[in-house]
Amino acid sequence: MVTSVVRPYRGVDAETRRSQRRQQLLESCLAVAAEDGVASVSVEAICARAGLSKRYFYESYRDRDAILVAALDGVFAQLSGQLADQLEICTSIRSRVALTATALVEVFSADPRAAHLYTSAPANPALEARRRQVVDEFTPVLIREVLGADPSDLRARAITMVMVAGTCEVLDRWLRGDLGFTKGEFIQTLTDLGQSLADSL
To answer: Per the confidence metrics, is the pTM higher than 0.85?
Structure first.
């Protein structure tokens, strides 16, 4: 049996080139969604923006919904990364709530394209399903790591679900410009609301 050897191209190995193409496609997906709307995102539009052929698209993604979900997952990964690095050093519930609110607002406000993708999720079934799934996955983590409660406690779970759902709604409204808070005011408001709910546990 002969094993094929994939040689580096211009000093870059095949896996690195694939990774670079995936990132190009993700960036193009975010750009097309932000400029033309999620409904306008297509394999053709993404590839044209990235300057890559469809062959390279299907090398990494099944279809346009798959890359939209991957782009949204990238945003949530940034949020998780920020929280994982800092939650351990917070000594009070309020400081952990404030950190969570700050990370949430900073991640989504840092890249308008990511914010647009998040606020557009309800218009795309795959994106909305993934957003809801992430919320469901994040809820027990929030109960345990931020509020210091037992995820199996029904009262804690119900209160945290109210916190998560409410935060998602007001974040969506703030990103759309419906709420006139400055970034600092919005973070403070989320922190105060989160602390109020935590106090009711």
So the answer is: no
